[in-house]
Amino acid sequence: MQSSTGKYFVGLDHVRAVAAFMVFTWHFNHVNDGHLAPAPIFPLSIFTEGHVGVALFMTLSGYLFAKLIGHNQIYALRFLTNRIIRLFPLLFVAFALTFFLQIMPSGQSIGTYLQILLRGFVTPEWPNGGWSITVELHFYLMLPLLLMIRTRNPIGLLVVIALSITLRAALWVVKGEVQSLAYWTLVGCIDQFIFGMLAFYFSHRLRRRHFLAVGTGLTLLVFMYLFDVWGGFYMNETYPTPSPVWIVAPTISGLCFATLIAWYDTSFRFESHFFSKALALVGTCSYSIYLLHFFVVFDLAQFVQKHVVDLTHTPTMVLASAICFVGFVPVAWASYRFFERPPMRFRQPYIQHGQT
């Protein structure tokens, strides 16, 4: 997808496509009255625990905006306006679909639904993936401050991450759980955004570091496998889980994803062959995939489980999800074409060039 600066990064659209597939597969795995939770299989736990795809999206946001802004500052109001223009048209479509397809049939009043939408600007209550847009908005509000810290010393951003970890640890001690804040709010997600920013600032040190990338990828896969073995997102004795793993889970995922994004973005020349174009197309409409797949993915999984193949076998589940994912891409592309792209012409430059 092309930014308001006119720049386009093919490799980052590839990353978006991977993140969208991870989230799609995570929800595809929600069958049989809840999370199917097949036995953990290395390295496929990154798909059966595909909620981590949201962490990949957020890490990518930090990296992308750091890359677009460089060592400049921004006009904060223009930046926020651009992000609203980019995100809200499709978000409103998703809200409307939720109302007609879910709220009205349930008998919930429109007044109650509107209250949820208003609270969603502050708390993660927007339905069907909209909660992550709330977290993104909170990051956008913090971005000018983070850029000021970066101007003084990029390492200062690590202090923010350290404070975030400390806060999560304190909340875990006081509340007995921190999963709900670490996953659903900026309390945890800030690590991913900042590691994404730092990965760009130090991306020159990751260029063609293939052994480091392999080690980082294996570390992430092992962590997700162990996370799955320890009970995963849902399958502990209670939800939210009292496990302290959520104190560091956002940090580990953010660091690993940031390293891999910077390595991938700087180490390869993305030729215009079919696979690269196809993957980039998926990445371009990944926002539509993310917001709209909620309306079909659960029914698709139920249909496949009932009529086609048993999804308790993890490799089969991932393969079935991939087929359904590819089938959904044309719908997402039409959504991008008619709902996402037209408002983009109203975006304006927001970078203060030459400012440090």
From TrEMBL:
InterPro entries, per database record: Acyl_transf_3_dom, Acyltransferase_3
Keyword DNA damage attached: no
Transmembrane segments: 12-29, 41-66, 87-104, 129-148, 155-175, 181-202, 211-233, 245-266, 278-298, 318-339
GO molecular function terms attached to this record: acyltransferase activity, transferring groups other than amino-acyl groups
Acyltransferase among keywords: yes
Keywords assigned by UniProt, alphabetized: Acyltransferase, Membrane, Plasmid, Transferase, Transmembrane, Transmembrane helix
Domain called Acyltransferase: residue spans: 10-336
GO biological process assignments: polysaccharide biosynthetic process
GO cellular component, one term: membrane
Xref: Pfam families: Acyl_transf_3
Protein name: Putative acyltransferase
Organism: Roseibium alexandrii (strain DSM 17067 / NCIMB 14079 / DFL-11) (Labrenzia alexandrii)
